[in-house]
Specification:
The chain has a single domain, classed as 3-Layer(aba) Sandwich (Glutaredoxin). Helix 1 links the parallel strand 1 and strand 2. A four-stranded mixed sheet has the order 2-1-3-4. The chain is globular. The chain starts with 7 loop residues before the first strand and ends with a helix. The chain is an alpha+beta fold. Helices cover 50% and strands 10% of the residues.
Length: 211
């Protein structure tokens, strides 16, 4: 008999262009593997590029979002440290020139229209395209490849990217994250408690299991 019990879910706020979100997901994967009961991801999108977007929604390369070269240098060092700690290979340490909005729109569409396992496969394919293969996940063809990897067709991506209502709803999700006090990603939330950053599996175990 199949197990029909509702699975526990951990809420994860993230943005595909955040290297710490990728590293945090590697940590979460280790914790999920070590856990006796299944733990699904309740994904909530977050826009790290919000401070650089112009009125048309496009990224303004000249916009000042308060992050200077010292900030990015420190970020690179932290990414290298965590990648080594978690034994994760990465094609790049930061991706400041990549706009994740198309990927987030497509992922949100898949999460609404496909089974959880299909969304998860697409989600992981997007992360890997950027951080393992160094590809531009703002590009439609790259997203189509991710969809194919998840057993989907190109039409899924095209339908998502042409849906203006979906675009508006994604903005609403970004606003909800801000209203809930999410100021950085990744943020893992469970039962009224949260952990921010690419925290190790043991900290995720404490968050969820209290151990």
């Amino acid at each position: 008999m199949s197990d029909t019990r509702p699975r526990e879910r951990i809420t994860v706020y993230s943005d595909y262009v955040c290297p710490f979100c990728y590293l945090g997901r590697q940590s979460l994967s280790v914790y999920q593997t070590d856990r006796d009961d299944p733990l699904e991801i309740d994904w909530r999108p977050f826009d790290l590029r919000a401070g650089r977007r112009g009125p048309d929604g496009e990224i303004d390369p000249d916009a000042d979002d308060g992050k200077d070269e010292d900030y990015y240098q420190q970020a690179r060092e932290n990414v290298r440290r965590l990648a080594n700690e978690y034994d994760v290979d990465m094609a790049q340490e930061i991706a400041t020139d990549v706009d994740s909005r198309p990927a987030q729109i497509a992922s949100y569409h898949v999460s609404e229209t496909e089974p959880y396992e299909t969304w998860l496969a697409f989600d992981e394919a997007v992360f890997e395209a950027l951080w393992l293969d160094g590809r531009d996940i703002g590009d439609r063809d790259v997203l189509v490849d991710c969809a194919t990897d998840a057993g989907l067709t190109a039409s899924v991506v095209d339908d998502a990217l042409s849906d203006t209502d979906l675009d508006t709803r994604l903005d609403r999700l970004f606003e909800e994250a801000n209203a809930e006090g999410i100021t950085g990603v990744p943020t893992f939330a469970y039962d009224g408690h949260a952990a921010r950053g690419a925290v190790p599996p043991a900290q995720l175990a404490r968050l969820v299991d209290g151990t």
